Amino acid sequence: QVQLVESGGGLVQAGGSLRLSCAASGRTISTCPMGWFRQAPGKEREFVAAINWPGESTRYADSVKGRFTISRDNAKNTANLQMNSLKPEDTAVYYCAAVAQRYSGRVFLNAAEYNYWGQGTQVTVSS
Question: How does pLDDT run along the chain (127 residues), one tens digit per residue?
């Protein structure tokens, strides 16, 4: 079983930056595809970014392309989301997730394909 814990959320002004981290315990995620999703109040959870194993392929939602960067540190068993040029519409709870299928070169975009989820971290962007 994998436990995921997100950190790095907080309150930031529009135009600012935050770096989210996702740490795993219980089992390594260094060989698992990873993703970040977010859910704003009153809205459905949406895809933000994803990265394959070992990390050379990434995909982004159009709304964050060019501003967010997903990365992974397989040695540290972590995944990260660097968020720059933040906008008020980025305000949401951000979740990291992992796919149980190991050593997969695919990038997974659908939340239903992810097996493990963190509890989420709040990101609030003020205007």
Answer: 889 999 999 999 999 999 999 999 888 888 899 999 999 999 999 999 999 998 999 999 999 999 999 999 989 999 999 999 999 999 999 999 999 988 889 999 999 999 999 999 999 999 9
Please spell the DSSP secondary structure of 26-64, one letter per residue: SS--TTS-EEEEEE-TTS--EEEEEE-SSSS-EEE-TTT
SS3 87: coil
3-state secondary structure of 88: helix
97 Cβ contact partners less than 8 Å away, ≥ 6 residues apart: 4, 34, 35, 36, 37, 111, 114, 115, 116, 117, 118
